[in-house]
Amino acid sequence: MRCLGRLSNSPEFAGFDNPAQQIMFMMECRTIIMPVRTNLYMIKIRQIQPEEVAFAKRLIYRVAHQVFNDTRALEESIAFYEGRSLLQDIDKFQQTYCDNDGIFLVLTDNDQIIGTGAIRKIDNEICELKRLWLLFEYHGKGLGYRMIQELMAFAREKGYQRVRLETDRNAQSRAFDLYKRLGFYEIPRYSNHEDETAMEMML
Description:
This protein has about 200 residues and is an alpha+beta fold.
């Protein structure tokens, strides 16, 4: 609590109303100034920890803000989607994924989260690839592929026969092309996400 008190009294945080906002701002700054390492062997994939949920959500909001060319300020966009519980599955990752034959992973560079990815159970034979996001500065290094392979290995180990996903083929064209190369094919929509393309792959 003493640390939060010091944050509240610092001039850098004068525009923030509460300590939680200050912490989020500090995490944002840490991400911005974090240099991109060239040693890919330092980048790890592991399960998310409860204390990392806020940071993982912040990363997703940041990347999505760029991908979908959101014209609002980032903080305004986050407040809008948080008010609609857009990422409530991550808030409840243990219940949504881990306790239900799924998993939620993070990519880390020097222990800093740079990407996310998850497997969610649909039924005993079908799972879904979810929350695959990666900071833009790490694109083009094969890290998205590494994450997908890790998640596919988990799905096979769990006995799933097929994996599905949904993506925006226009805004996320690079991801769409990657999925096609990996063997995903288009299928009829299986959710109420009308603007997204549904895909599936046999495991």
